[in-house]
Amino acid sequence: MTYTVAVVGTGADPDSPDSNGYAMAYRHARAYERLENCRLVACADVVVENARAFAETFAIPPERVYENYERLLAEVEPDVVSVCVPPAVHAEIVVGCAESGVVQGIHCEKPMAKTWGECREMVRVCDDHGVQLTFNHQRRFGGPFRTAKRLLDAGEIGELARVDVGGPNLYDYGSHLFDLCGYFTDQTPAEWVMAQIDYSEENLQFGVHNENRAIAQWRYEDGTYGTASTGADSTLNCELRLVGSEGTLEIGVDGGPALRMRTSGGWKTVDTDGDGIHGPTPGLVGRAAKQVKSRVPFLPVDRLTPDAPTFIDRAVADVVSALDEGRRPELAAENALQATELIFACWESARRRGRVDLPLEVDSNPLEEMVEAGEMLAASRIAE
C-alpha cells in the first residue's frame, strides 16, 4: 500500500538564518522520501512562509500548503501525519488528527506533551480511534544502543542491576534517555521515583520549562534500579551506563568511544557498525565530500558517497512498516508514556520532597507549577 503523508509544523528551513538548527520536519520528510510506499502530499505551519519553503524543498504543490492543519486534514485526508510542532501544542494536534477519522498513523516529535494529563489523553484518543501513535525516540535505532542491547541480552555483563543516565535535563534531552531505559529493561514498569531538582535560572526550551540540575533514583518491578544526573555538572562520565552482575556497558563516553564494555578482562571498545550516539559516523570520503559541498554547493557530491540512513530514517521506516504489517511499532506511544511518566514523577517527587509511587496520579506539569508559584527561585534564594 502507498501511504500519503502530511507534515504539520514545518519550522524554518535548516539553512535559513531563522532556523533553530533542529528542523525536525525536514528530517522526517527526508525519511519518508526514502520509502517507496510513501508520498509527501501536504504540509502546514502557522508561519505560512515556512510551509511554502518546505513545500518547495519537497515538491509539494502550492495548493497543498496550509496555515491551518484542520483544513489540511479535511481537504487532503492524509494516511500518515508527522507532527513536528513544539511540545506545548502536541496534544491539541495529535488529538485533532486522531478525531478527524481520516488518519491511520501519527508520528509525533518528542517530548510527548507539556502535561502528564495531555500525554495520557493523546494515547487514549488514538487508541479509541484505532490510530497508530508513535513518538520520535529515534536513538533506539542507533548502533551503540542496538549493540549494547544485544550484549546485555546475551549475558555479556550478567544480570542487569542498574541503569544510569546523564545529560542536560530530564525532559527535552532526557526524553531520549528515559526511553532508552525502557528499551534496556524490556519496558518493565517502574514502582517508585525519588528526585530533587534545581531551577535557579530560567530554562525554557521550545516553550517548556526544564530544570537546571537533577538527581533521581527509581526502581523497576523486577528489582532493577535507575539513576539520573542532569545539568552541566552531571556526575556521569557517559550518557548511559548499564551495570550488570558481571560487568558494565557505557554508551557515549566523554571524549571516548560510542560504546565500551568492562568485564573481568578490563575495558574494551565495542564496534557499533559505524554509528556514533547521534547518527552514522561519516568516513573519510564522506567528510571530504561534505567539505567540497560547503565550498561548491552546486556539485552533486551526495551521489559520490554512500547515503547511510540516519536514526530518524530507520525510525520512520519502522513506523511505516508497522502500519503496513499491522504490528506494534518499536516507538509505540505506550513506550513513550512509560518514559515520560518517570520524567513527570521526578518533578512531582521534588515538589513533594519525597518518594512518589507509581502510577503517577497528577494531570499537571509539576515543574511548571512550582516555577509559576515562585517556589523554585525562592528555594534557591534561601540556599544562598
From TrEMBL:
Keywords: Oxidoreductase. SUPFAM superfamilies: Glyceraldehyde-3-phosphate dehydrogenase-like, C-terminal domain, NAD(P)-binding Rossmann-fold domains. It holds the Pfam family GFO_IDH_MocA. Residues 166-250 form the GFO/IDH/MocA-like oxidoreductase domain. Residues 23-137 form the Gfo/Idh/MocA-like oxidoreductase N-terminal domain. GO terms for molecular function: nucleotide binding; oxidoreductase activity. PANTHER family: BCDNA.GH03377 (PTHR43818). This is Predicted dehydrogenase.
